[in-house]
Design goal:
The chain is an alpha+beta fold. The chain is built from 17 helices and 29 strands.
């Protein structure tokens, strides 16, 4: 094959030291001085991560048939380097050593058991040449094999060898997993799908996984393409890393990288945590929907991505929130869960949003814009100041779906909106303007929906009002009632405090506005020692709280910065936090 002008070679050089060696070959560097840049963030995870910090060493060489000469690299900033002037037609190699020991789905990992990398963590961008075809060569490693959706050009049976991407941005959209895998293959609507799993100590139940994933993927294809039932890819790959404790996913156009608790996967001869497995299927559903919504339907602000700076949009409530609504809904539609468990999931999310004081201070549109500095950099005050565009975004999708059904007398639903959004912005790859969703909603539902939609948008998307879900759900045949809670549950809800176990101490992590904990003078970081003279530990917290009664005096002792404090106060209820449960009528 003709070697592209830009070629990366990745070698898992030091398994025990967790280091990749990466060689970047540039056939035609800018003679005036080629600039190289390492991405600062990865699409789908809205935080500046400074991947360049993992580069241990970097060197550049001018290559001829017989010699190589080291070149002096100029450091421009944390992420950028500049080559010196070279002769026209010179070939340059840039060699980096990259430390990789992050188990997340966002970066790179390497040890004696497995390897994983997103090219954005290893591959420097060649400024001015990112539009060119790009090759990735992966060097063999023992008995391991390669899993990726990159286009194979010349590889061995294990997948080691040469891959090709049409440009640098496309290269970054294909994560790579290395090692040994358990593989599940199936076809949904005629399109090939695979799941490869690392980290399970026993054989997974391939039949159950294939059956469930087949149904979920078909239901999602049908959501966006009810007539043609065609997926927008030729092959889709789920890359799963099963660990002791972990959860997360990152979307790509033809694949997704998933992190899960290994006990949440069905394994031969082991009892299955059914709730955990449902959570895993929901994660698969969520990231698979992103193949349409985010990877192909995109905000205009993301076209093209600028991976050196923050890319702001006020639409993450749509791209993440609507995905979060449909991920569980498609489990119901594919008959992976029954109606009542689905309603329980809806109620759980609704109640979680209602417990957050930040929902009255920040709109989901502002939350989307501020994702880089607020949502992705959460601190002890976040619940009081921030609303999740995932969680409330899912409620907005539910509310809009219910409103459309009521206004059109069941003739239309949110599905019609998503299908038009796909036709207008997914198939065409035309980015969605910040106000572009207005046009889609009205075109899908009709001009009579303009007033209800604009009111909905002003109150719940641009504003901070709670959605009247109880009214809308009841109108659709769903019974809404106050959640039944024990006196202990009510007391803990009134305290409005989140905590962790620090060596047997109750450590306060969050104090929510208006709760008993705040009125008692507690702050994040405090260690609670006793209430009413009783020693408080994480194990005994429920027993101590169960003895408390509203209207009585309480005495609290706690440590802040190793100094003991005492607070005496009356246990008075705060404003009621509404919590609901749902059931089918």
């Amino acid at each position: 094959m003709a070697i592209p002008a830009i070629q990366y070679t990745v070698h898992a050089a030091d398994l025990d030291g967790h280091r990749y060696e990466v060689t970047l070959r540039i056939a035609n560097p800018n003679p005036a001085g080629q600039v190289l840049r390492m991405p600062a963030w990865i699409p789908g995870s809205y935080l500046i991560r400074d991947f360049s910090k993992h580069i241990e060493s970097i060197a550049a060489f001018s290559i001829t048939d017989t010699t190589e000469t080291e070149l002096q690299l100029e450091r421009i900033d944390n992420d950028s380097w500049k080559l010196p002037q070279v002769d026209l037609g010179s070939v340059v190699e840039v060699r980096t050593t990259v430390y990789a020991f992050d188990t997340s789905v966002r970066t790179a990992y390497l040890d004696s058991e497995r390897g994983f990398f997103n090219p954005s963590s290893l591959c420097l961008a060649v400024e001015g040449q990112t539009h060119l075809p790009t090759a990735l060569a992966i060097a063999p490693i023992g008995t391991w094999s390669v899993q990726t959706t990159l286009s194979r050009v010349k590889t061995d049976s294990a997948g080691f060898g040469f891959y090709l991407a049409p440009n640098y941005d496309a290269l970054l959209d294909h994560p790579v997993a290395l090692g040994h895998f358990q593989t599940i293959d199936w076809k949904s609507r005629g399109t090939a799908h695979s799941m490869v799993i690392q980290g399970c100590l026993q054989e997974v139940d391939r039949q159950r996984l294939a059956t469930d994933l087949f149904a979920i993927c078909e239901s999602i294809i049908d959501l966006f393409e009810p007539k043609t039932k065609q997926a927008p890819f030729q092959w889709y790959l789920f890359l799963v890393n099963a660990v002791l404790s972990g959860y997360g996913g990152l979307e790509h156009a033809d694949s997704t990288a998933l992190l899960c608790n290994r006990d949440h996967l069905p394994q031969q001869g082991s009892p299955l945590n059914e709730d955990g497995y449902r959570e895993f299927l929901g994660l698969c559903s969520h990231e698979y929907i992103h193949a349409w919504l985010v990877k192909r339907i995109q905000p205009k602000a993301f076209q093209p991505y600028d991976l050196q700076v923050r890319n702001h949009t006020r639409l993450l409530w749509l791209f993440e929130g609507f995905t979060s609504y449909y991920d569980d809904l498609q489990l119901l539609r594919s008959k992976r869960i029954a109606l009542q468990p689905y309603l329980d999931l809806v109620a759980k999310n609704w109640n979680m949003v209602l417990r957050g004081p930040g929902r009255h201070k920040q709109s989901v549109a502002d939350s989307s814009f501020d994702a880089w500095t607020k949502y992705y950099q959460a601190d002890e005050h976040t619940p009081n100041a921030v609303v999740s565009y995932y969680a409330k975004g899912a409620l907005i999708a539910l509310g809009l779906d219910l409103l459309i059904r009521a206004q059109t007398r069941q003739r239309k639903s949110l599905d019609n909106v998503m299908q038009l959004l796909w036709a207008a912005h997914g198939k065409t790859q035309e980015g969605l303007l910040e106000d572009g969703f207005d046009r889609i909603v009205l075109a899908a539902i009709g001009p009579d929906f303009k007033k209800p939609w604009l009111q909905f948008k002003a109150r719940f998307i641009e504003g901070t009002h709670d959605l009247p879900l109880a009214q809308w759900l009841t109108a659709q045949g769903i019974a809404v009632s106050d959640k039944k809670m024990s006196l202990l549950e009510q007391m803990k809800l009134q305290w409005a405090m989140r905590y962790s176990d620090q060596n047997g101490w109750v450590k306060v992590t969050n104090v929510l506005d208006g709760g008993i904990a705040q009125r008692a003078g507690l702050a994040p970081g405090d260690l609670i020692s006793s209430i009413n003279g009783q020693r408080l530990t994480p194990i005994r917290l429920d027993a101590v709280f169960a003895q408390l009664q509203m209207g009585t005096n309480a005495r609290l002792r706690f440590y802040r910065q190793d100094c003991e404090h005492e607070s005496q106060f009356v246990l008075e209820p705060s404003s009621p936090v509404m919590q609901y449960q749902l059931s089918a009528k």
